[in-house]
């Protein structure tokens, strides 16, 4: 009795065949048996199988010897080969007869799901390769490993001698150091793309007031104010929205975000329809964007309204990291990444 899997295979296969295919199978096997019996008959007469020898009829004595010895090894091999050949011919005829019906059959959804689910299970015989974890794929995408543009090190582009708009900006131990006066600012010589993420690692070392990040979308320039001391309270928000300051519009939030002497990671995400800001992994601003409503307070303005900028207010802040990751569109550096951010302290 055949195993259950083999039985089910043949039952499923025969159920798909039409009457013509079944008739061809039957005819092929009848022919194969007839050819095999004919081959046996020839060998019983003493016909030789070596192709180099001519066919001949043996003498009666030779025929008796053949009958006594039986068909022999060559006769059995020839009969077996003939049977297999006839069987393969029958199978090919069957496939040819039934192929048009199979090709015209509609594709079942279950077959597609099955094929998709098992597509990744095919591996070379020599080596089995495990798929990369999802976290590794996402990390590769974030770093530009899946065709996305790599992050841009904005800190390397800054030269305080050329880019400072107000205040004495310097580098110390490869960190950008802000001055400690109101409205001190420096422009970053980079025109951002349409959509992007900016990551800043900042450490406030002196004072107790705000770090300010100037963002740009096309001709719209605006400021992200973080940890501004207003009447004894720390406030943050976007500045200006509909001409209103950060402490007087819908983006205002309260509570301290920085602790002096402790680096914090700030991520600003600019999209076509949304602006979000997070500090140390906590989202603090989430605004449905309409960039026509945004503007820059006059005292923060720079020579080029398409550029990014940094500002401070009565605080000394060390900028450890300043990177931009493009999401869509193309940014433009006004200078090569050869600024003094990687030079010794001044």
Short description:
It is built from seven helices and 17 strands.
Structure description:
The radius of gyration is 41 Å and the shape is elongated. Helix 2 runs antiparallel to helix 4 (about 70-105). It has about 350 residues and is α+β, with helices and mostly antiparallel strands. The chain folds into 2 domains: about 5-120, no CATH class; about 150-340, Jelly Rolls. The protein has helices spanning about 5-15, 20-45, 60-70, 70-105, 110-120, 135-140, 160-165, and strands spanning about 150-155, 165, 170, 175, 185-190, 190, 195-205, 210-215, 220-230, 235-240, 255, 265-270, 275-280, 280-290, 310, 315-330, 330-335. It starts with a helix and ends in a 13-residue tail after the last strand. A hairpin with a 2-residue loop joins strand 8 (about 210-215) and strand 9 (about 220-230). It has 7 helices and 17 strands. The strands form 3 sheets. Strands 1, 3, 4, 7, 12, 13, 14 and 16 form an 8-stranded antiparallel beta sheet that branches.
């Amino acid at each position: 009795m055949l195993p259950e899997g083999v039985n089910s295979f043949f039952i499923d296969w025969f159920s798909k065949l039409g009457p013509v295919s079944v008739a061809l199978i039957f005819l092929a096997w009848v022919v194969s048996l007839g050819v095999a019996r004919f081959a046996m008959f020839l060998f019983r007469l003493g016909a030789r199988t070596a192709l180099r020898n001519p066919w001949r009829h043996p003498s009666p004595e030779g025929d008796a010897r053949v009958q006594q010895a039986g068909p022999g090894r060559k006769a059995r091999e020839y009969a077996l080969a003939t049977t297999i050949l006839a069987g393969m011919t029958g199978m090919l005829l069957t496939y040819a007869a039934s192929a048009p019906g199979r090709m015209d059959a509609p594709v079942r959804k279950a077959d597609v799901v099955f094929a998709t689910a098992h597509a990744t299970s095919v591996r070379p015989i020599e080596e089995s390769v495990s798929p990369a974890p999802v976290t590794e794929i996402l990390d590769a995408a974030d770093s530009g490993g899946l065709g996305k543009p790599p992050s841009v090190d904005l800190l390397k582009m800054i030269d305080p001698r050329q880019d400072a708009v107000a205040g004495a900006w310097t580098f110390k131990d490869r960190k950008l150091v802000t001055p400690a006066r109101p409205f001190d600012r420096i422009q970053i010589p980079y025109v951002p793309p349409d959509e992007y993420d900016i990551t800043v690692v900042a450490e406030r070392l002196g004072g107790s007031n705000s770090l300010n990040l100037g963002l740009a979308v096309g001709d719209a320039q605006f400021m992200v104010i973080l940890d501004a001391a207003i009447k004894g309270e720390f406030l943050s928000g976007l500045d200006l929205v509909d001409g209103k300051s950060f402490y007087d519009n819908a983006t205002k939030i309260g509570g301290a975000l920085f602790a002096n002497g402790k680096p914090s990671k700030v991520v600003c995400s600019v999209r076509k329809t949304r602006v979000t800001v997070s500090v140390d992994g906590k989202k603090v601003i989430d605004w449905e964007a309409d960039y026509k409503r945004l503007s820059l307070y006059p005292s923060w303005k720079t020579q080029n309204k398409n550029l990014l900028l940094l500002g401070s207010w009565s605080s000394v802040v060390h900028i450890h990291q300043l990177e931009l990751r493009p999401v869509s569109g193309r940014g433009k550096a006004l200078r090569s990444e050869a600024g003094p951010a990687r030079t010794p302290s001044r």
